[in-house]
Description:
The protein is an alpha+beta fold and about 190 residues long. It has helices at about 30-50, 55-80, 105-115, 115-125, 130-140, 180-190; strands at about 20-25, 85, 90-95, 95-100, 145, 160-165, 170-175.
Amino acid sequence: MDQPGRQRPYQNTPDVDLSVTYREEPPRAWTRICLVAYAGWAAYQALQLLPDDLTAWLVVCAMSSLLLLCLLAVPLSKRLYHRIHLDGGELRVGRERLPVASLTPVSLAAAANEPGRAGLREYRASLTPDQLREARRRSNALTRPRLVGGAWAVPLGMEELVVETAEGASLVIATRDRAGLLRALTRARGV
């Protein structure tokens, strides 16, 4: 929490465009489909069981809600840990906040030149088995950058964007629109 009269370390940095905004919310279609299906199932069971078997209907709804919770765990996790907002020179990923001025322009430029998922697939397919084993050995020897937001891993359907801070820490940001986030960060950072 910021105290009144106290400035954040990167707040008045001249090389950050504070007017750049970017917002990335996880899709809600799966959540809506699951909730509508659950409501339909509960209504169907109510027509079959109520008013005679209230206890049976409550048990069926409770057991079905456990299945619903399992189906909604990933969307809820993405919403909690991977929601991205860029506003006022601050990048918020899930619960974590990063000043845009702390991101190095060199790492943003390097991320812009990295191949996307399709390019990596093509590169991997072009390697011989020996080259692939050597590449895996080298990548396993490296330490993995920290995932921003607090989750364990990058979820399926999301890409990762690797950036570095001025302090030298490597960070991974899980995003659904890698190019859009990278454009916003480079515009905000003035790269």
